[in-house]
Amino acid sequence: MASGGPSGRAEQVQRAGLAGRTGRVGPAGRAGRAEASGLTPRAREALAGLPINLAALSHAFVRAGHEIALVGGPVRDAFLGTAPHDLDLTTSARPEQTEALLEAWGDTCWDVGRDFGTIGARKGDTVVEITTYRTEDYEVGSRKPAVSYGETLEGDLTRRDFTVNAMALRLPDLVLVDPCGGLADLEAGILRTPVGAVQSFDDDPLRIMRAARFAAQLGFDVEPEVLRAMEDMAGRLEIVSAERVRAELERLLLSPWPRRGLELLVHTGVAEVVLPELAALRETVDEHRRHKDVYEHTLTVLDQAMALETGPDGPVPGPDLVLRLAAILHDIGKPATRRFLPGGTVTFHGHDHVGARMTAKRMRALRFDKQTIKDVSRLVELHLRFHGYAEAGWSDSAVRRYVTDAGPLLERLHRLTRADVTTRNKRKARMLDAAYDDLEARIAGLRQAEELAAIRPELDGGQIMAELGIEPGPVVGQAYRFLLDLRMEKGPQGEEAARQALHSWWAARQD
User: Fold this and answer.
1) What is the CATH class of 196-274?
2) Which of 55, 374, 385, 483 is 20 to 30 Å apart from 361, CA to CA?
3) Residue ranges of region Disordered (predicted)?
């Protein structure tokens, strides 16, 4: 598709009449506009639930001499048949004027980001965020956009990231404004920028990440010009804060088609800037085919892990960020641990532990929260543990330790381990699947008999100190770990047996 800005396109304007959907009429007092010839039946149905409070708010802005419109994602989603949940609005009013109107309209009003022209408010169950028409770009070397206010809705739309997000519905009459051909691109499944892609990405480099995110979210293709600009300008992302990059990566991974977005990041070289460990997996491709393609394997593991996510009442409700992150990072230690042995054998010994350290380092750089870093890196560390069971079977002690080491991540570890089987050898795949079925059955049996998820020594720290007559200190922790190991090895022993074992351990230490 040829690129181009709004200059070569006629603005699409269709009247849709908010009247009839909210019980209110337009400013002219006519209810006959309720049928919107310019909106598809799917969009009309999606917009039918717009709250009545929105009509009252829009009339207040119009009476005050301002324009106001529903804009961006909610409009795009309506044409895709999804009722708008977030009410993102744009207006010609300046922030202080918006704030005054919202305070008169709503139950409460707050400053979302006055420097960016955004004020929020709530009335009943209706929550809105309203932003003044604006333009923005990045100064050279700056991580924050410089914002200036615009004068027209059309101008505001042309500064947005992609044409499918550059549509608006003027309120209160639901007038569709589409100066950049976003509706046609939406129907074609194309991501295109309202202005030249290089200019757009130079104005806001985070749009490079958003291209991949929307490809994953919408399942759309990226226009060739956008693809080239992503390749040429990937380095520009270095001026964007890690927090904003991380937020886009999270949205990409939680989308319906994350593989599509990740492949786009890797293909364009963007991953080498934001997630270089994933891009490096391509280096493990072996022209002699002595082992599988780790990059393609990783993407397949992601697909298979997603398929194992559960509904909201299941143990791993999807989309699950921790599981999906673990899927794409579980083998990132392989490039650093690859070794070629005589006879053509290739090994990756220790890649689980190396990968866990690399995972934590990358996630810290992207400013993930501590718990997510801990959980994902732990899954990466444990993802190979099962293979010892598949090869030789485990004692009850080993099963207990597997459950205890996984802790609250056990259900995710189940899914990551199963998803990690991508062999084309059907016999091997069936064997591994059966082995894991057996392990899960063993876990269920032990859990029922021993309350496995809550394994603790029979004596706590206070009881240990009382038995041995010692004060708090490192020895208490050593005694606790001894009793925990005993519990793992032999199962429940009872308090009396634990006391005897503790005193025997203590006496041996005194010799």
Assistant:
1) mainly alpha
2) 385
3) 1-39
